[in-house]
Give the backbone structure.
Amino acid sequence: MLKMTGIRKVYRTDLVETHALDDVTLDVKAGEFVAVMGRSGSGKTTFLNVAGLLDTFDGGTYTLDGMDVSRLSDATMSRTRNEKIGFIFQSFNLIPDLDVFDNVDLPLRYRRMTAKERKERILSAVEKVGLSSRLHHLPSQLSGGQQQRVAIARVLAGDPRLILADEPTGNLDTLMAREVMELLLKINEQGATIVMVTHTPECAARAQRAIHLLDGRVVDGDSHFGHLRSVPTGALAAAI
Amino acid sequence: MALLGYDLFLARKSLRRNPGLTLLVVVGIALGIAVSTTFAAVRHAFQTDPIPEKSSMLHSVRLDSWDPAAPHPDRVGVPPQVTYRDMVEIMKSKIPVRQSGMFKTNLYVFPADKAQNPFEEMARVCYRDFFAMFGAPFAYGGTWDEKADGGEPVVVLSEPMNQKLFGGVNSVGKTVRLRDRDFKVVGVLAKWMPNLRFYDLTQNYIGEPENLYIPFGLLRPMELQLAGNNDGWGPNTGTGFEGYLASESTWIQMWVELPNAQAVAAYKSFLDAYATEQKKIGRFQRPLNNKVTPLLEYMADREVTPRAVKSLFAVSLLFLAVCAVNLIGLLLGKFLARSGETSVRRALGASRKDVFLQHLVECQLVSAVGGVVGVLLALGALSGINAWLKSQTGRGDLFALDLPMLLVALALTAGAGLVSGLYPAWRACQLAPAVHLRIG
């Protein structure tokens, strides 16, 4: 699904050259749930930007769903993002003056779908995250957890092959974090590939495997947590 | 285009989000549109073809009978009017389809209704072809016959004059007393209000057409006095009225209707031959410089559009441009302030083109609102100018926002929206989503 080989990303100023990604090689299979971990400044953000086609890279090859995305035009890259990738952000990134319906509608608009098809997808997605009764609420009228569920509905409506989640539980309390994680797992079980950046080992533990970034390099790409995907108990449950 | 409705929806949301800023942009555009549309309409009134169906066939005739010592001070060096003696001679040509010399005079009108006081009225003294040449429509009757051109007391009334003297009924055959004799009404014009008095561009051409029309042949028997421009050189050789008629004074507007280029060339040759002939008797001592000029070209020659109007129009466009340029900064600030939202859209699939068009549509929407307000302000301004003009010339309908002017306002509005919006929209679409998106 997502295959990076020797990806490099360098930020340059007159004085300093920073290797944000240094020879990153990664292969995420279709249907996998992969956690990406690392300290601040380890390259997680750059990795997510490159993986989500939001930023270019300086070397290596990147194949997304069988398509080499190294040299795509802006239009093609935008279409690829729209059709193949869904984003879930830590700070939700909902449009403040659009209600739930219109926020979920956003990616579908750029797919030039008919009004009927958009409406069907929106209603279905909002129902899946349990917010049917909040369809015409503005983000400011929703709790943090509800806002993140709207963001997830926005992804579900687009039905992407790959979901990139950035600390999706980072701004949520324990209960809401658990709800969101359960939703992501459910989505993954239904076939979507998920790559989730997270600081918390407990969240990472619910992925099938985790990779660790340090100074732009993958230092451990083979931590498998598949055995932990069942409902957590004890301290882990309290943390999530 | 598929996203136009969505872009309009987003634009409406955005404009409501910052009402103060929106108001500022609307006011900026509205002022620019109001000023530029007002002066565009004023300029348009002077430049509109007054008789498009035949303006190419109507030609002003000018003869260079001027002083051998110096050219006429007119910008083309030829007097805009002709002498009486020259008019009489060139009227003998059979080349024009229609032709008329003409001038204006003041006459006292004595209404049959004794309850009405006599009043002074401007009359046009012309040939019978005048009405057909210049497209003056008749409500009743028609022009006088050829014999009456020689000096029969017949008159054509304008619609307002017929209303005033006869209550608007068909007055053909009735009599109206002008100065010292009775005139028989042969025709009554229907409503006729060309944008300018284009058949006489020598002076005061902003105004309504005359209310009385009488045959040129009455000039001598009534010794009609000129009420227009008189431009001459050299001493009168004769005395009294006949001396004036024989002088080198130019005071008659001469028009011919020539249907095609061959007729124009033939008529020009005829004039040159006439001038060459006159040279033999000591007149027309200047180099041949006779003019047969189509109406629109003649209007340009006469600088019908005042220079001040042209200048003000140019300045008003500059003002609009300044307004639009000033708005660039405001819109840029507004668009960049929501770079986070733009980046979310980019992340979810909006291409640079989508983002560019979304912001451009917003600029066009706010510009359109400004344009509507500007057009309303321009209507008010034109109404004020018309009121002033009415107090000066008696005519209060010269300047209007007709369809062409509304299209001009639309184009100016779209232009202002583009000027003010192109750069901010371009900057918005160039935002790097990875930089402005709150991730990581």
